[in-house]
Structure formats: structure tokens, C-alpha cells
């Protein structure tokens, strides 16, 4: 027999309205009452009917995740982080992949928000970095949170989670410099993503601060894919003056770089050190395992969703910053000077 809200109210010794206020996360309920109701919900294994709650309430209890990204690991981690926050707050999650280059992408997302009565949407790059899209969402008073590359000084949307990609790439490059590498190449990701620009700038800054001349031929354009890492590395290893280390814009590219180097008969890491970015499963599945920077995507997505849900409170923080940290593994070693 299905447990109802009336059963929960009776078990907790409160009114049905109080149970509704607790499940709707209204801030005016006493903590002791919240604890009683939540204990009853747990004891009875009560599952609120979110669809019915959406129809009855003055606001929605559904969050949308809008994305355009070829990296499956990225999407899964983001989805799991958002879902964790939604489950904790009794919200539904609606997932919507889209083509960020489509002319009507703004209309698509606005239609999704209205059709599904979304309380808000979580936007990831490149949509979260598209000023035209954000302006269109502002015009219809849509609620959204942006996950973007940047730092405290960066220009940012009204509600955002910033990832300091520049610092992460700078630290990675500095790590290679500390290992005596002077000829360091960079595999650049999709230029539509601000993260690509930020990571490239971090690489440039590290070289500059160590008085290492930048070789433009060592910067290879590409996208965030395994195949792009292969193509870029094949180009680098056929140069007359080859790099001794490669900074890849993400782990998938780094795994592709390692694959291409192996095919070329290059020993990793003794002849060529390779580092990635994001600390995705790719970084742990290669041989050797990849040095990278940790980008806690699940936590980032969870925090972004919590900010979106709590944004109705005036005291809610408007932005958060995550700083990636270097994870040392076996794909980078000290260069032996001959």
C-alpha cells in the first residue's frame, strides 16, 4: 500500500501542510519539526509525488541540465553531481542535450523551460559562455547557473561556478619545467570553450615567468577528443625540433597523445612526458597513468545545482570558485640532460 503525505503527517504528529512545507524546503519551519518530518519520511519510505507537487505549487520542482559536450565522462560526472543535489532537495532532473551552434538554441532552451516548468537550468560550456543565450534567458526571467572557466577577477554571469583553469594549466606546466623540460608543447582544446583559452594562457604564463621562449609551432589547435590528441601528437613528433613534454587540454587528448607517441616508438615518459587535465577515468586507464589536475566535476555540479535551488533566498552566494590541484602520476619524469 502506497504511503501518502497524510500518513507522514500522522506519524510525525504534525499537519499535512507542515509536511508539505518540509518537502518543499521552505526555510520558516523549525529545525526540530524538520527533523521529525524527515524521520517519518525515512521510517515510512515516503516518496513525494513530484509531478503532482509541480502542478499544485506556485513554483516548479524540476531542474534542467543543458549540455553540448562530446566527452561522455564529463557529462556523466556532471549529471551525477546535479542528480545528487536534486535528490537531496526532492527535485526532478530533466536532461537536455543540444547543439550549441544551432541558430535557434536559445529558443530551444526557453521552450524547454516553459514546457517542463523548470525551476532553473544548469548550463555548461559552451552555452554557459554564450552572451546571446544568457541575454535571451534574462529577457524571459529564466533562472540559471553557469559553470564556466575563470577566477575571482573574471567577468561572470549573475549566478555561476568558476573553475580556475588558468591556474591549473600554469601549475601543470610549472611541474614540467621543474622536471628540467624547456621544450614543452600544448595541445589546445575547442576554442569555442573559454576553458581552452584559459588553459592556453596558463601554459603561456608559466613559460614567460621562467624565461622560456614560446615556440608557436608547439601550440597545436584541436578539440577535446582522443582523436585530436593523436593528430596533434603525430604533428609534433615529426618536427625537426621535437618537444620533450606535452601539456594536453584534457585527459582524453592526453591519452590520444600517449597512443600516438607509442605508435611512433617513443618511450613514455623517458623520452616524452605527457600531462592531461581534469583527472577523468582516462587518466587512470592509460599505461603509464597520467599526471593531470583534479577537477571535481561531481562536486562542482552539485554546488552549482544547490546554488540554483537556493537562489530564491537573498542571502544565497552568487558565485563559487574551484581551483584544480595537480595529481602526480607516472607520465611525467625528470628530463635527463645529455
Order of strands, main sheet, comes to 2-1-3-4-5-11
* CATH architecture verdict of the largest domain: 3-Layer(aba) Sandwich
Low-confidence stretches: 54-58
Distance between termini? 77 Å
Q: Give the strand tally.
A: 12
What fraction, in percent, of the residue positions are helical?
40-55%
For the residues shown, what is the average pLDDT? 89
Count of alpha/pi helices: 13
Oligomeric category: single chain
Biggest sheet: strands, sense, closure?
A: 6 strands, parallel
Please state the CA-atom Rg, rounded to the nearest Å.
24 Å
Secondary structure class reads: alpha/beta
- Element-level helix/strand string: HHHHEHEHEHEEHEHEHEHEHEHEE
Q: Hey, roughly how much beta strand do the residues contain?
A: 5-15%
Number of domains: 3
CATH fold name of the largest domain, please?
Rossmann fold
**CATH superfamily heading of the largest domain:** Response regulator
Highest CATH level, the class of the largest domain = Alpha Beta
Structure, described:
InterPro entries: HTH_LacI, LacI/GalR-like_sensor, Lambda_DNA-bd_dom_sf, Peripla_BP_I. This is LacI family DNA-binding transcriptional regulator. Pfam families: LacI, Peripla_BP_3. It comes from Parashewanella spongiae. Keywords: DNA-binding, Transcription, Transcription regulation. This protein is an alpha/beta fold and 338 residues long. The protein has three domains: 5-48, lambda repressor-like DNA-binding domains (434 Repressor (Amino-terminal Domain), Orthogonal Bundle); 62-164 and 296-325, Response regulator (Rossmann fold); 166-294, Rossmann fold. Helices cover 44% and strands 14% of the residues. The chain has 13 helices and twelve strands. It has helices at 5-12, 16-23, 31-44, 50-56, 72-89, 105-115, 131-139, 165-178, 194-209, 226-237, 251-263, 281-285, 297-310; strands at 62-67, 92-97, 120-123, 144-149, 160-163, 184-187, 219-220, 245-248, 273-275, 292-294, 319-322, 325-327. The strands form three sheets. A six-stranded parallel beta sheet has the order 2-1-3-4-5-11, with helices on both faces. The chain has a four-stranded parallel beta sheet with strand order 7-6-8-9. Helix 5 links the parallel strand 1 (62-67) and strand 2. The longest helix is centred in the N-terminal third of the chain and has 18 residues, at 72-89. The radius of gyration is 24 Å and the shape is elongated. The model is unreliable at 54-58 (pLDDT under 50).
Amino acid at each position: 500500500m502506497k504511503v501518502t503525505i497524510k500518513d507522514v503527517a500522522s506519524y510525525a504528529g504534525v499537519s499535512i501542510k507542515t509536511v508539505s512545507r518540509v518537502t518543499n524546503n521552505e526555510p520558516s519551519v523549525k529545525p526540530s519539526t524538520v527533523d521529525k518530518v524527515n524521520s517519518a519520511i525515512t521510517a515510512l519510505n515516503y516518496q513525494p509525488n513530484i509531478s503532482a507537487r509541480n502542478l499544485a505549487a506556485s513554483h516548479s520542482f524540476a531542474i534542467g541540465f543543458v549540455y553540448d559536450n562530446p566527452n561522455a565522462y564529463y557529462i556523466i560526472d556532471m549529471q551525477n553531481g546535479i542528480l545528487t543535489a536534486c535528490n537531496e532537495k526532492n527535485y526532478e532532473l530533466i536532461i537536455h542535450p543540444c547543439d550549441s551552434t544551432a541558430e535557434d538554441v536559445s529558443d530551444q532552451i526557453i521552450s524547454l523551460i516553459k514546457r517542463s516548468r523548470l525551476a532553473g537550468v544548469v548550463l555548461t560550456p559552451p552555452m554557459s559562455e554564450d552572451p546571446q543565450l544568457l541575454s535571451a534567458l534574462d529577457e524571459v526571467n529564466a533562472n540559471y547557473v553557469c559553470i564556466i572557466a575563470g577566477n575571482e577577477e573574471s567577468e561572470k554571469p549573475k549566478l555561476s561556478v568558476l573553475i580556475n583553469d588558468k591556474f591549473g594549466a600554469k601549475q601543470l606546466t610549472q611541474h614540467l619545467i621543474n622536471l628540467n623540460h624547456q621544450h614543452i608543447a600544448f595541445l589546445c582544446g575547442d576554442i569555442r570553450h573559454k576553458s581552452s583559452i584559459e588553459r592556453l594562457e596558463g601554459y603561456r604564463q608559466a613559460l614567460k615567468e621562467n624565461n622560456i621562449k614560446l615556440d608557436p609551432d608547439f601550440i597545436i589547435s584541436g578539440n577535446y577528443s582522443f582523436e585530436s590528441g593523436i593528430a596533434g601528437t603525430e604533428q609534433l613528433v615529426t618536427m625537426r625540433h621535437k618537444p620533450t613534454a606535452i601539456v594536453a587540454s584534457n585527459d582524453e587528448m592526453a591519452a590520444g597523445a600517449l597512443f600516438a607517441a607509442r605508435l611512433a616508438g617513443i618511450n613514455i615518459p623517458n623520452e616524452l612526458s605527457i600531462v592531461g587535465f581534469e583527472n577523468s577515468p582516462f587518466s587512470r586507464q592509460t599505461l603509464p597513468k597520467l599526471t593531470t589536475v583534479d577537477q571535481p566535476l561531481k562536486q562542482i555540479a552539485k554546488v552549482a545545482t544547490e546554488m540554483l535551488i537556493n537562489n530564491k533566498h537573498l542571502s544565497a552566494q552568487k558565485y563559487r570558485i574551484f581551483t584544480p590541484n595537480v595529481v602526480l602520476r607516472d607520465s611525467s619524469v625528470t628530463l635527463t640532460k645529455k
